[in-house]
Amino acid sequence: METAGTTDKSTGRKKRQRFFFFLIFLLLLAAAFGFYRIQKGPLYLVVSAPPEGEVIYRIPVKEGQEFALKYTHSVTQRPVEGTFLITADKKIKPLTTSYDAFGPGLPYLDGSLEYTLEEGLITVFHVEEPRENIRLFASPLTGEVLRVEGRDYDLGNLRPEPFLLEIAPRAGAFF
Predict the structure, then answer these.
(1) N or C: which end of the chain has fewer CB within 10 A?
(2) Would the CA dihedral through 31, 169, 40, 150 be positive or negative?
(3) CA 154 to mean position of chain CA atoms
(4) Pairing assessment for the beta strands 66-72 and 79-86 based on DSSP bridges
(5) Percent of the chain having pLDDT more than 70?
(6) Which residues make beta-bridge pairs with 61?
(7) Distance from C-alpha of 104 to C-alpha of 60, rounded to nearest angstrom
(8) DSSP per-residue codes, 18-33
């Protein structure tokens, strides 16, 4: 036989359980929404120094946007420019490398690459899979510059000695 006191306790326990499950549901929903916002949030081209984890630049970009990396070749002392595309899956696709004097590390024109030669400038068209990032050593000797939307970001003169840099597209407010 139930008494009024046991019925109240049972009803109160059920209410607390429902409230607890509702609270868990709300927390899970908020977490899913937050994860979605991070993944679909603003896109940035992040330039960082991997060993220290220092973020040097955080440049707003869009999917499908191109950017360039320019430097002076350490052997030929001639300018080199690479162009890249930010893909829909937030990777970097190499597009071209342009230079006017062949040097170590530059694409060798052995007939296996598509290229043009106009007014002394060789432009090689890359057929490569997109990559997660670009890693390079920057130094005052080579004076690397990142160009995004017509704006130049100095990379090579940030430190007196060569240092490792990483350039990668990152979505969301946290990376």
Answers:
(1) N
(2) positive
(3) 17
(4) antiparallel
(5) 83
(6) 43
(7) 33
(8) HHHHHHHHHHHHHHHH
Query: Where would I find the beta strands (DSSP E) of 62-128?
Result: 66-72, 79-86, 92-99, 114-118, 121-125
| Contact between residue 92 and residue 85 where contact means Cβ atoms under 8 Å apart | yes
> Do 68 and 123 contact (CB within 8 A), yes or no?
no
pLDDT range class, residue 45, cuts 50, 70, 90: very high
CA distance 146 to 71: 9
Contact between 59 and 44 (Cβ < 8 Å): yes
pLDDT at position 1 over 60: no
pLDDT-derived band at 99, boundaries 50, 70, 90: very high
The per-type count for the chain, helices as H runs and strands as E runs, is 1, 11
Quote the tokens at residue 124: 């090689």
**Contact of 81 with 68, CB cutoff 8 Å:** yes
To the nearest whole number, what is the mean pLDDT of the chain?
87
Calpha distance 79→142 (Å, rounded): 9
Q: Helix, strand, or coil here: 160?
A: coil
Closest to 41 in 3D by CA, of 19, 22, 61: 61
Q: Which residues contact 169 (CB under 8 A, 6 or more apart)?
A: 43, 44, 45, 46, 61, 86, 90, 91, 92
